[in-house]
Specification:
Two copies of one chain form a homodimer. With 198 residues, chain A is mostly helical. Helices cover 70% and strands 4% of the residues of chain A. Chain A has a two-stranded antiparallel ribbon. In chain A, helix 3 packs antiparallel against helix 4 and helix 4 packs antiparallel against helix 5. Chain A is elongated, with a radius of gyration of 24 Å. Chains A, B: Homodimer and heterodimers. Chains A, B: Keywords: Cell membrane, Membrane, Transmembrane, Transmembrane helix.
Chain lengths: 198, 198
């Protein structure tokens, strides 16, 4: 159908002059790299959305029951859930800043190597933070769900069902955010590795 | 002081013949790369030692008190600590296998790029596992230490002091192992990044 020798009419009209000659292996990976950064932006936007969703579901988890006196359950009754909220907030803020960074790289690809290096470094830290916070909140939530007979910690979720449903939702989304962070580190590492000449 | 044209007497006497011609950017990073893998081996040995230490301290945490009936605390009374033990075991086994891998790269450096890529990929997964397990165990241990008045979970560490000391020790060593895993990922990423021609 399309001939390889066909001249692109757009190119003839308004092709900007290349600022410097493209040489060596960089020319081969340039298009792929732009695609990588587009995937990077998509993952970071998804990370931002999931951290915001997890935060909203967590802070709206308050539940009050009358059994027989009014009792309420709120996420800030446990330090584990406060740590969880702080970690999610840091991850959300980080994903917002790095999304803007990735968009800037798509527009100006010169510093892509440096960005990939910084992203791999900081994404690992945020992954450690989010994974540990998810574990902390999950561990305490599990005790709330099942109780522990050995130390006589009673179940909480039989009384505060809505509260526990919110917690479970928030934990699931946070686990998804951890997976996204692993994918982001992998993407950066693969992109850096691809730049090594064979 | 020293002339740039001075001939090194050592070089003239017993310079071994190069097995194959060194070409391109690899010649500049070759010595540094061997050093990187030595640091890698050191970190992995340290990771192995710390996971084994954390496991030993965790499984020897059993304590029995008479107050007034005999009561015992053991790590397998809580699923959080079982998960912690499993994660530490996986990390320990992984560190052992990858230490051998790194030693093989020091002896035969041809496949160093591939090893660095695989290490960066799998180290991130193990980091996520150890960080989340440390968080889970830490969250439950904190409830044991401080209790939670809102849901009437009583303190455990006032009764089982030795058990809680063991837990705290195991958690501290596990946190150190998480830091080692972050350093290992960073080392791999830096080593891969260094191979990109400027």
């Amino acid at each position: 159908m399309a001939s390889t020798e066909k001249v692109d009419p757009e190119q003839g009209k308004e092709a900007p002059p290349s600022p410097k000659p493209i040489s060596g292996p960089s020319s081969a990976t340039c298009t792929a790299e732009a695609t990588c950064f587009k995937v990077d932006v998509a993952l970071r936007v998804l990370l931002f959305a999931s951290t915001v969703a997890a935060i909203v579901v967590l802070v709206t988890s308050k539940q009050t029951v009358r059994a027989p006196l009014p009792l309420s359950a709120k996420f800030n009754h446990s330090p584990a859930f406060i740590y969880f909220l702080v970690a999610l907030s840091i991850a959300g803020l980080y994903s917002l800043v790095t999304t803007l960074g990735s968009i800037s790289v798509i527009l100006k690809p010169e510093h892509s190597s440096k960005f990939l290096l910084y992203y791999a470094i900081f994404d690992v830290l945020i992954l450690g933070l989010v994974a540990s916070a998810t574990g902390t909140a999950g561990g305490v939530a599990y005790v709330g769900l099942k109780g522990n007979d050995h130390v006589r910690w009673q179940k909480v979720c039989s009384t505060f069902d809505k509260f526990c449903q919110h917690l479970a939702g928030s934990l699931a989304v946070s686990l998804f955010a951890s997976v996204l962070l692993v994918l982001l580190v992998w993407l950066s590492v693969f992109s850096i590795h691809k730049k090594i000449p064979k």
